Amino acid sequence: MKAVFIAYNQALTEAINSILDRSHIRGYTKWADVQGRGTHGGEPHFGSHTWPAMNSAIIAIIEEERVEPLLASLKKLDAKAEQQGLRAFVWNIEGMI
């Protein structure tokens, strides 16, 4: 099993939900109001007067064979809307209950 953490501008919420649905990823945990700033550019998302945008984040624990198709879909979305901000990270799950 793998954990996929996705952080994204809230403007992409519908597109992210659609990708998860098309990928048959039903189970996940979501944080609705996440602040952050990208490493390589883009504007901060702080929910402030100066930087009003906000992020959301999702973590999904999925089978290894679902990871690459999910990342490919996310990368395609990111390429369409680079300035919105979208990142995904994957790591191993050592155990779970």
Describe this structure in words.
It is a single chain. With 97 residues, the protein is α+β, with helices and mostly antiparallel strands. The protein has a single domain (2-92), classed as Alpha-Beta Plaits (2-Layer Sandwich). Helices cover 28% and strands 30% of the residues. The chain has a four-stranded antiparallel beta sheet with strand order 2-3-1-4, covered by helices on one side. Helix 1 (13-22) runs antiparallel to helix 2. The protein is globular, with a radius of gyration of 14 Å. The protein starts with a strand and ends in a 5-residue tail after the last strand. The model has no long low-confidence stretch (mean pLDDT 93).
Which features characterize this protein?
4-stranded antiparallel β-sheet; Alpha-Beta Plaits; alpha+beta; single chain; 28% helix; 4 strands; 30% strand; 97 residues; globular
| Amount of beta strand | 25-35%
Largest sheet: 4 strands, antiparallel
Tally of helical segments? 2
CATH names the topology as Alpha-Beta Plaits
Low-confidence stretches: none
Percent helix range:
25-40%
- What is the CATH class designation? Alpha Beta
- Mean pLDDT across residues: 93
So what's the overall shape? globular
Distance between the termini: 12 Å
Structural class: alpha+beta
Q: How many individual domains?
A: 1
Element order, helices and strands? EHEEHE
Q: Name the strands of the widest sheet in spatial order.
A: 2-3-1-4
Q: Would you identify the CATH architecture? A: 2-Layer Sandwich
Specify Rg, calculated over alpha carbons: 14 Å
How many DSSP-defined strands?
A: 4
